[in-house]
Write a structure and sequence with these properties.
Strands 3-4-2-1-15-14 form a 6-stranded mixed sheet, with helices on one face. It starts with a strand and ends with a strand. The chain is globular and about 55 Å long. Helices cover 28% and strands 23% of the residues. 44% of the residues are buried. The protein has a single domain, classed as Deoxyribonuclease I, Chain A (4-Layer Sandwich). Helix 1 crosses helix 9. The protein is α+β, with helices and mostly antiparallel strands.
């Protein structure tokens, strides 16, 4: 069984209001990349992954006049993918949905929202994030996608797809404003991760096999504001102290080597320094019951993964398709 998470930058811009692909010469939302180029690159990447399920982060928009499921299933048909069915949870108003594309021959999937440990993810969670002794209402702009998944072998899994709050100071007009917005965004991001952790703990205490995957916009040692709060959102979700833990080898490596080289899953261009910044943002975290299966993780990185690097078509497709790279977990499930 091969399960992946993939953040596709502005996937929605490749579809028209009838959820049909616009594979033409017009510009996509990626710099200097046409819609046709991004579409073909994505087809190449999805075919290379050959996954049984892909958690698509920044999936196409779902609204009164658009359908995430119809868009993704049309994309899958265009490239002959076996992950030809899609499922969506709570839609949002950001045009960046969270959805799962999956192979119905190997998995059965249903949306299974929960209030275990905390309120449902489409509601408000009360938490004091600014230390004023008053609870603040926390909301997800992109509510996590909670799924009940059953494999062909009959194994039932819980799966939660995540796109956590970005900490980038968008809209800042001065250094002081950038600092204030960054701290405020980190508070919100950590609050979301605390909320998610409560759900995780409830599933782990119930003995569920659990996979939490997606883009956390965070990681151990990622920025200077982590020192202010003492930990990253990823560490919160993985679990701390003597409680039950989730495991992701890339997160574990980052925690152990804060000053050394760590795996990376995203690559952004910094206009100020005129250089690319690589970072670890995307994870597939699993519970102890799944760790016993001795699965493997792989980042489809165009430079760090030898098989991706030596395959010129795939390497260029990964660079063209998105600013994130897929993370794949494979195990006998």
């Amino acid at each position: 069984m091969r399960i992946a998470t993939y953040n596709v930058e502005w996937f929605t811009e490749l579809f028209d209001d009838s959820d049909q692909l616009i594979a033409d010469g017009g510009w996509s939302r990626r710099h200097n990349v046409t819609r046709a180029q991004q579409t073909e690159a994505l087809g190449t990447v999805f075919q290379a992954m050959d996954a049984d399920a892909v958690m698509v982060i920044e999936a196409p928009d779902h609204s009164p006049h658009r359908s995430t499921v119809r868009a993704l299933e049309g994309f899958a048909a265009r490239f002959g993918l076996r992950i030809r069915d899609a499922v969506l949870g709570f839609s949002n108003d950001t045009q960046q949905e969270i959805a799962l594309l999956y192979d119905r021959d190997t998995l059965s999937v249903r949306h299974a929202p929960s209030n275990l440990g905390a309120v449902r993810f489409d509601q408000a969670f009360e938490l004091d994030v600014d230390v004023d002794a008053r609870p603040d209402p926390i909301r997800w702009s992109k509510p996590p996608l909670e799924l009940e998944v059953t494999t062909r072998a009959g194994r039932m899994l819980r799966m939660i797809g995540v796109h956590a709050k970005s900490k980038a100071p968008h809209g800042a007009r001065s250094d002081a404003q950038a600092k204030r917005i960054s701290i405020e965004n980190r508070r919100k991001q950590l609050a979301q991760c605390i909320w998610l952790r409560r759900r995780v703990e409830a599933h782990l205490q119930a003995g569920d096999d659990l996979i939490v995957l997606g883009d956390f916009n965070d990681g151990p040692g990622l920025d200077e504001y982590e020192k202010l709060f003492g930990r990253s959102g990823v560490e919160i979700v993985l679990g701390e102290g003597n409680g039950p833990k989730l495991y992701d080898p890339h997160a574990s490596q980052a925690l152990q080597r804060r000053l050394g080289a760590v795996p990376t899953t995203a690559r952004f261009y910094n206009r100020e320094t005129k250089r690319y910044l690589s970072t670890l943002l995307d994870y597939i975290m699993i519970s102890d019951g799944l760790r016993a299966e001795e699965g493997t993780w792989r980042i489809f990185h165009p430079f760090d993964d030898p098989a991706c690097y030596t395959d010129m078509q795939l390497r260029e497709a990964l660079l063209t398709a998105s600013d994130h790279f897929p993370v794949v977990y494979e195990a006998a499930l």
